[in-house]
Amino acid sequence: MGGIGKTTLSKKIYHLFHEQYDKSSFLEDVKSKNIEDLKKQLLQDLCGRKKNNVEVMNGDDLKHIEETMISKKVFVVIDDVDEKLINDLSKVLAFQGKNRKSNVIVTCRNWGVLEGHLDLNGRFEVPYLNKKQAMELFLLHTFHNTKQVEKGFENIVEEIVEACAGLPLSLEIMGGFLHKKQSLDMQTRLQFWKGALKKLRTGKNLDGGKKDILWQSLEISYRDLDQPEKDMFLDIACYFGGLKEIIALQIWDSESSTLELQNLKDRSLVKVNKDGNLTMHDQLRDMGRKFAKEEEENRIWDPKTNLQNLQEQKVVITTSNYYFFKNL
């Protein structure tokens, strides 16, 4: 999931251990980079060739990289890869079986991109922060300490940390945004905090203008989906959260529903808990509901608007406790 801390964690691991290897390379945010530039970076980091001196990569250069990976103890991190680049970078992954002293870490939003190149046993899904960790991170960015909550802010701090639901990026952005208003008096700040919490819960940008990094990060995963997956994502965000997976599949009633749901799982947009119920992170849910409103979809989840829709629609199709509206 975007904002869960994949890049932060892989950077930390890289800085902790890269000196234990003969050669190492950290390729950051690769999906925004040109494949030739990435190969040149590898050539420089692993083989000592200055990338500015290489105009065009040739077969000998690639062979040199591969030989280095096999003959030396190498550590490579490939951060935020996508399906467009994975095949071009497959040579970086291919050395694993030939040199057990070397290691590679790949971060990605979609496991489906990697499963043909990496062993399932090597998969690690970064977990959400627990309540204690989340509180410490939020306080660090808000009050610049990890223990003490300013008097009078105890309740609102609890609410914000709960609303962020263990997502590091959300906690950092909210904390940093609220810290900027420390010069305001206490009552004004409390009202400001409440307004920021409301915006967070409704998927709106905190500053009222340009999209902040939180929603930009989450929207990337949604925008990359095909239309059937987008529709399924919005269904879950609006009213299928907490529903049994098997029941949701029966409602969708499509030959491709199982595949589309698996695609959402692979991208960490949807999870199935131990009871077999569909779950989604709160920020993803709020973003999905915002999109449903913007796209004027007939998805109803707010009890306040249910009666109005029941009165306006000529046909109401019900399945269990979920409502689908259709005009005739």
From TrEMBL:
Signal sequence, start to end: none
Ranges for domain NB-ARC: 1-146
Location of the Disease resistance protein Roq1-like winged-helix domain: 228-294
Annotated SUPFAM superfamilies: P-loop containing nucleoside triphosphate hydrolases
Pfam family, one: NB-ARC
Organism superkingdom: Eukaryota
Lineage: Eukaryota, Viridiplantae, Streptophyta, Embryophyta, Bryophyta
The UniProt record lists the keyword NADP: no
Listed name of the protein: NB-ARC domain-containing protein
Sorted UniProt keywords: Leucine-rich repeat
Species name: Sphagnum troendelagicum
